[in-house]
Design brief:
By secondary structure, this protein is mainly alpha-helical. It has 25 helices and five strands. The protein folds into two domains: about 425 residues, Amino acid/polyamine transporter I (Up-down Bundle); about 150 residues, 3-Layer(aba) Sandwich (Rossmann fold), CATH 3.40.50.620. It has a five-stranded parallel β-sheet with strand order 3-2-1-4-5, sandwiched between helices. The longest helix has about 45 residues. The two termini are about 35 Å apart.
Length: about 600
């Protein structure tokens, strides 16, 4: 199913915000991590990779519009080299997501600890609990809001700029000279040191790949919207990453750089703007870092879902829970691994940063090389093509250096990728089928995984329609009433039947909205979930003896209220019937309040009736 207009919710500035909330977090921990290995030359290496980041970001614009279905490195690599290579690209980016979640959670609590020193000894525990809390929110089904991301991104960017401006004002003539020195390689730097620092500094741009995962939710025209969004990402990163890194190295005294490497930016803020600015940095940094950790969990489990749909991972990974209908198994795996990594490394940011390199640069290489291959097959030989090839070569050098120099990253990333690929090949070639089929628990999960698709062939649901199909048959089955069902609601259906008969109508529209939360939408489902099937079956059975024809409509949306209001407008009904909400206040916060949303979004001439 292609992404619908309803799921394409992101204008360019919203897409910029979501990406900046991911890539913009790296400035909070990269300067400290790099300082431990390259010292006062940290700003030079960040500036050097910023220059390399720009052509790569431009390539990601094309990767995004060439793949409107989403999928990022998995999709582009599959199109260039085939499914198995796409699976390998997915395994690489998954290891990057694992480390993103781990490092973001740890770094977020380090910034909180800079104003609450009492939690300094509990960073590991808090980071693990934070990830588990995010997992629970995703299992419940948090509806990631692009507007929330926009507010967070603008706030963080504005605070970063304030820190930059006030810090630049603090620079004396001597410090300006020192700043210039930190941005140059110096005569004593060897080629080996140059390559090692260049490879390590790419950590400053982790999160760039998220733009390609967002493509199913970006507004059309996709190429233009993506170009503006990525232009905003480039400008915001150029204005923040090199300057904040340079100011951290120049303004902070050696003892602070040696002992507070996890929170350089808040320390710079207190030097240039006092405790008030430090608090602002801590609040924006910690919330943004936890948002990035959540984005990483979402990205990882969507990769799992994509690979399970293509037969590279067991179907049970995509199984959705009965209560919240979220892929709880995929979410659990996407959370347990980074928690284990945090525990194994004891939350040391330097180790986490070192482990980052394998998956991040590997995914960059695969995406960049795949686009080059597609361009070549299409006959492109222009300047842009050769700049793209040069970008791929630059990434290959950085990845190759890290493979040799970052042994821990190679061991972790290589092991995770190898395990993933062996699992994928085993599932693809049915190595494990006979073995797993003997386990009762697996048998039950597989039965549930197939149940929904089996139920779809039942006679009751052969008339299931999309909204577009319902609009087409409207002249044959006209009704002024739309029932919005969430679960089996016999009283609501009876109220609809009574109203239809009172209006002298023979049909009744009945809509079930499958909420598909998340900005990393990926492929939306082709068929209703189990609850949708049971709800629509119950509605069809309830009208059998009433001489009323129900038109069952199933649709997917990130916002149930918006989908129902849109259906009411397109079907030109004058009344929407909906049951009283049984969701808790907490549930409303996570997934939205449908009744409140309908009061704002329904057409002015359409009435809303609530049936208890």
């Amino acid at each position: 199913m292609q992404p619908t207009k309803d799921t394409r919710q992101l204008y360019w500035f919203l897409a910029w915000a979501v990406v900046f909330c991911d890539i913009g977090t790296s400035v909070y921990y990269v300067p400290g991590i790099l300082y431990g290995s390259v010292g006062d030359k940290t700003p030079f290496f960040v500036l050097l990779t910023t220059i390399g980041f720009i052509p790569l970001a431009l390539k990601y614009i094309e990767i995004t519009w060439r793949n409107p279905e989403g999928g990022g490195v998995v999709t582009i690599t599959t199109k260039a080299f085939g499914p198995m290579w796409g699976c390998l690209g997915g395994m690489l980016i998954t290891t990057s997501y694992f480390l993103t979640a781990a490092i973001s959670a740890v770094s977020g609590f380090h910034y909180i600890a800079s104003v609450l020193p009492s939690i300094d000894g509990y960073i590991v525990v808090l980071a693990c609990l934070g990830l588990l809390a995010l997992a629970m929110l995703n299992i419940i089904g948090i509806r990631e809001s692009a507007m929330v991301a926009l507010i967070m991104a603008i706030s963080a960017f504005a605070i970063d700029i304030v820190v930059v401006v006030l810090s630049l004002n603090e620079l004396s003539a001597d410090r300006w000279w020192k700043a210039i020195e930190t941005l140059t390689p110096g005569r004593e730097m060897s080629l080996h040191d140059l390559l090692v620092g260049f490879g390590a500094a790419w950590l400053a741009f982790s999160g760039l790949e998220s733009i390609s995962q967002l493509s199913p939710t970006i507004r059309l025209p996709l190429r233009q919207t993506t170009r503006w969004a990525m232009g905003g990402v480039i400008v915001s990163m150029v204005l923040t990453a090199p300057l904040l890194t340079m100011l951290s190295i120049v303004l902070l005294p050696p003892e602070i750089k040696a002992t507070q490497s996890e929170r350089f930016i808040s320390e710079v803020a207190v030097v240039s703007g006092g405790i008030g600015l430090k608090l602002a940095v801590v609040v924006s940094a910690s919330t943004l870092l936890l948002f990035a950790a959540n984005t990483a969990i979402i990205g990882a489990y969507h990769i799992f879902l994509a690979l399970s749909k293509t037969g590279f991972l067991p179907m049970v990974i995509g199984l959705r829970g009965k209560r919240f209908h979220s892929p709880h198994i995929a979410i659990a795996i996407a959370t347990i691994v980074p928690v284990a990594v945090i525990i194994a490394t004891r939350g040391e940011l330097s180790l986490l940063g070192e482990m980052y390199a394998f998956g991040l640069l590997g995914a960059f290489v695969f995406s960049s090389l795949s686009l080059d291959t597609i361009r070549w097959k299409l006959g492109r030989r222009d300047l842009g093509f050769w700049i793209g090839v040069l970008t791929t070569g630059m990434l290959l050098v950085a990845w190759g250096v890290n493979l040799v120099e970052k042994e821990l990253a190679t061991y972790f990333g290589g092991a995770a990728t190898l395990i993933g690929m062996l699992t994928a090949i085993g599932v693809r070639r049915a190595w494990f089928v006979d073995l797993l089929a003997q386990i009762p628990f697996i048998q039950r999960l597989q039965a549930r995984a197939y149940r929904a698709s089996e139920n779809l062939v039942e006679d009751e649901l052969k008339g299931l329609m999309t909204l577009a199909e319902a609009i087409e048959v409207k002249p044959l089955y006209s009704s002024s009433t739309l029932l919005a069902l969430r679960d089996e609601s016999p009283r609501l259906i009876q109220e609809g039947i009574t109203r239809a008969k009172g209006k002298g109508e023979s049909a009744l529209y009945c809509i079930y909205v499958e909420e598909w939360p998340g900005l990393f939408a990926g492929d939306t489902p082709h068929f209703p979930n189990e609850q949708g099937i049971e709800t629509l079956k119950a509605a069809l059975q309830a009208v059998r003896q009433s001489n009323i024809e129900i038109i069952p409509i199933w649709t997917v949306s990130h916002n149930a209220a918006e989908a129902i209001a849109h259906a009411a407008k397109e079907l030109e009904v004058d009344t929407v019937l909906i049951g009283a909400s049984r969701r808790s206040a907490f549930y409303h916060v996570l997934r939205g309040h449908v009744l409140k949303g309908l009061t704002k979004k329904l057409p002015h001439d359409c009435h809303l009736m609530i049936c208890n």
